Amino acid sequence: MSNNKTKLAIIIPCFNEELVIKSTVETLLSVLDGIIAKGKISEDSYIYLIDDGSKDRTWEIIEELHNMFGNKVRGVKFVRNYGNQKALIAGLLGVKELGCDCVISIDADLQQDENAIEKFVDEFHNGAEIVSGIRNDRKTDSFFKKYTALCFYKLMNILGVKIPPNHSDFRLVSYKGLEILEKYSEAGLFLRGFFHEIGLKTAYVYFDVKPRMAGHSKFNFLSLTSLALNGITAYSIVPLRIVVAMGLLTVIGSCLFAAEVVFEKYFLNDMPSGWATLVILLAFFGGLQIFCLGIIGEYIGQIFSEVKARPRYIKEKDI
Ligand code: UDP
Ligand code: MG
Fold it and tell me: What residue owns the CA closest to ligand 1's atom 14?
């Protein structure tokens, strides 16, 4: 494919982003113009916004931008909020339908450095099918988010999903990647795991994270926990194996303990009152069992939502 024919789509998930979306689109259009002027992408490259059930004026602004810039700015509106992963999936599949050679996803608050987009395109021209944006640091994240994210990536690595730390959803995907994505019908698809797993040629681009220009983060403790749990249970069954191993160790330990108790009772005849030991053991194993049931429950939850095979999202309008 010759470089100047590359049709690039930029997708932006938006949830209550009325404060930033206009300036973000204008900035990205000028970034696109710059890359078009260098002959690296085609003139019909465009932006595709996914309104993830915003309650503010986000969709009205998207419509205004569409009226102003025509097919350079297109979009889809969900009937309700489905979360950032589903908005991204809708964006990826949406631009596949509209047509593109590659697509880049970026946040509406433009915290990711838009100047890295050209580097993504260069890597694509060098043959990469996926280009992943890696944050240089997490200076803009809160202490809590920084360390929980670090723990999450460490845990995922231990569990066998080798996602590079400081990975983000700022990434380029080729048309081939989109064709593969379309074949995966699972509802709880975790994109960072998915694009890593499919094994297409991947390049990495490092970028600086800026503070959010306006508004506030749309993620809270609960939504981040749910994203992390979904990521783990969708891509690793190691926790279930750990539960099995813990169960086995507990059984072996209890057998040894029982043997010792029997030995003391019948041969030494000096059975201590042992109340403390009993209570501690009871509490410990009670906790362990509930914890293990919880892990199993998470997987059953995954099966439950996959088995129903409901649509991932419902669209209200598109332009
Ligand atoms: N977002 C979304 N749906 C949600 C939550 C977030 O589409 O339910 C979008 C949001 O509008 C933004 C991107 O996902 O474009 C990242 O969200 P945010 O900037 O709030 O997250 P943070 O930078 O704090 O991780
Ligand atoms: Mg942000």
Answer: 84
